Amino acid sequence: MASTPLETELVVPKHAGKEVIDIDDEEDDELSPIEQVRLTVSNDDDPSLPVWTFRMWSIGLLSCVLLSFVNTFFSYRTEPLVISMITIQVASLPIGKFMARTLPTRKFRIGSKEFSLNPGEFNIKEHVLISIFANTGAGFGQGRS
To answer: Which pTM value belongs to this model?
Structure first.
């Protein structure tokens, strides 16, 4: 006896052993056709996560300046040492989590604006922006930017 899938289940047809997603379905528009992306990246955005934080600006600017300087400095060697943005991407996660634990949570007021040095946990949006800063600085010494 053949069973029918529930309406809430995602039915992924297979073609030649590979999963195929029909991107014409309205409910499946948000799904990535690549299985690894579907399994690791959420389709939902949380707009309540802080993005333009003191942590993001300080770690991001420091990583951009540091990578730009180091890669430019070492580019004059006969065998240049190249430090990629992956180094900063890996190092910025524990640094961001450390800053989230140690920075004060007190609110500061400038005029009508109110902000905090530590608005909450270190999140993925801050980490992505730090990686973008680092990528900008990493390409400078080799003329790739």
So the answer is: 0.72
